[in-house]
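Tutorial handout. Part one gives the primary structure; part two gives the three-dimensional structure as tokens.
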Amino acid sequence: MSDLPKDPAKPHGPVAVGELSIHVDPDICIGAATCIAIAPNTFLLDSEAKAIILDTADADEENTIIDAARGCPVAAIYIEKNGQRIYPA
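Part two.
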């Protein structure tokens, strides 16, 4: 597992992971870490306790990443697929 962001210039995204585009809104993220528990290859908290997207995100399955977004208690993770928002809908 890595603790390096997938895109160091945009650690919160949006970044492409397979067919998904993932973005974490750091203004909404409360650092609950539910996303990390569900998709540990995709998410990690930075020094400000905000989720970032890891360079190992491709190791998690698409459904796992979507489940991690659904698990966020404040809906801070946005996911698009093929240009369409799939979470939150």
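Part three, for discussion. The CA atoms of residues 69 and 77 lie 5 Å apart. The radius of gyration is 11 Å.
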